[in-house]
Amino acid sequence: MRRLFLALPFALLPLAVAHAHEDHEHDHDHAHGSLAAHEHGVARLNVVLDGKALELELDSPAMNLVGFEHAPSSAADKAKVATVRAQLEKPLALFALNKAANCSESDQELESPLFGDKPAADDDGHAHDHSDIHAHYRLDCEKPEQLTNLDLSPLFKAFPATQKIQLQLIGPNGQQGVEATPAKTTITF
């Protein structure tokens, strides 16, 4: 399932290096600037279209999706986590794709300490004091040539605390890095 994403960090390395300095200047909550920095209101989305396979990998602070980052203890917190997980289990409702491409979900993986997974650790093995939610989807598209753009408006509507999505896209026209916002939700392949 992760075949396409294994190459993604290398393909985007020049872009990551270019943004690392910028992120470092604006990232006051973390000791080192990186594209994986945890920033409320900001999510990251990697998209790869390779032949008929479309892979989407979303990383977001839990605050953007459920409104908190602590382990759910109350019935209301547990219900909110369950609702968000159910929303994330329906990628075709979150990512608007041209229906003519005839895409269907073939695989998905959802991970978060809020879902009962062990807390993520950084490169040094230290556990984070905040929770992220990671969603990885693989879609099979019968007519990938019909995929001309990706509309993120359903994602922004479902999770209004998400103010921007830093998107890395690799498709038939090469790679691009763009920033989507509630006012600019459509990304061209």
Automatic annotation (TrEMBL):
<dbReference type="InterPro" id="IPR021253">
    <property type="entry name" value="ZrgA-like"/>
</dbReference>
<feature type="region of interest" description="Disordered">
    <location>
        <begin position="108"/>
        <end position="130"/>
    </location>
</feature>
<keyword id="KW-0732">Signal</keyword>
<protein>
    <submittedName>
        <fullName>DUF2796 domain-containing protein</fullName>
    </submittedName>
</protein>
<feature type="signal peptide">
    <location>
        <begin position="1"/>
        <end position="20"/>
    </location>
</feature>
<feature type="compositionally biased region" description="Basic and acidic residues">
    <location>
        <begin position="119"/>
        <end position="130"/>
    </location>
</feature>
<dbReference type="Pfam" id="PF10986">
    <property type="entry name" value="ZrgA"/>
</dbReference>
